[in-house]
Amino acid sequence: MSTTSVSTSLPYGITSSHVLAALHNHDVMIRTLCPAVISYTFESGDPRTRATYAVTDRKPQTGVTTYRLTLTNLADGVNSLVNARPKMGILTIAGKWRVRNGKLVEDVEIDGNFMMMKMAKGNVEKTHPVQHSRLLQLATRA
């Protein structure tokens, strides 16, 4: 298992409640986590608390792929869980998005075979700061 963290300070004028509202909006979260989303469909659960979606996305390394994404709303943020089965093996990415001390903090655990974990960790470290910025931008509209 591999872990990594991404932390972004909340810009002036964006409150914790703005960010929490964006985190709890599953459409916003899916579009934040999956910027090249082709489509997604609700599978089960309740979007106000915990829901699972089938997401079809375009990834630079693997092309078009479909995976399950579960989002669980919590008082201080949201948990995200990606279960994917790309050609190279099974991949699980668990994210804990929290608003703390004026920051958006994301702790990520990645599990899969060595090659998948290495590729996914590099991707998380490269793309998730951009995802944080996008989410904070969308939070101003929430």
UniProtKB/TrEMBL annotation:
**Which species is this UniProt entry from?**
Lophiostoma macrostomum CBS 122681
Give the Pfam families listed for this entry.
DUF7053 (PF23155)
Q: What is this protein called?
A: DUF7053 domain-containing protein
**Lineage summary:** Eukaryota, Fungi, Dikarya, Ascomycota, Pezizomycotina
Domain annotation DUF7053: ranges: 4-139
Top-rank taxon, per record = Eukaryota
